[in-house]
Amino acid sequence: MKAHIVFTHPNLQSFNGQMRNVAIQTLKELGVTVSVSDLHQMKFKAAADEEDFTSLNNEDFFDLQIEQSMALYNHSFSEDIKKRTPAFTRSGPDNISIPALVGKYARLNERIH
Q: 20 to 30 A Cα–Cα from 45, which one of 37, 51, 60, 88?
């Protein structure tokens, strides 16, 4: 199995950073191939807008959902978006969400401390 962790926080020593580290370690111990995208470190633009596309379906009225659907069909995402997409597709259909791990706080807390 493969897992791709999408993480963003300015401080890897924070609780969130430690959760990331524990998730990576735990997944690897379980035999999972782990890749990580640190959006903060990559200076990833978090706001979705017209700049995410090389062309727009409707230049007079911006509808993000329609533009995203059309960009998938027309391959018209910006280079910024395109260069980050392979990391998600490499992780495969088994997606693991860090918030889901928060429910296992007691186990994670033991490993952090």
A: 60
**Which pLDDT score is estimated for 43?**
80
Q: Do residue 9 and residue 33 come from a single domain?
A: yes
* Cα–Cα distance measured from residue 98 to residue 101, given in angstroms and rounded to the nearest whole number: 5
* pLDDT interval class at 79 (50, 70, 90): confident
> What letter would DSSP give residue 43?
T
Higher pLDDT, 55 or 88: 55
Number of domains in the chain: 2
Q: Residue 62: which domain range? A: 47-83
Q: Are 40 and 1 members of one domain?
A: yes
> How far is 32 from 16, CA to CA, in rounded Å?
21
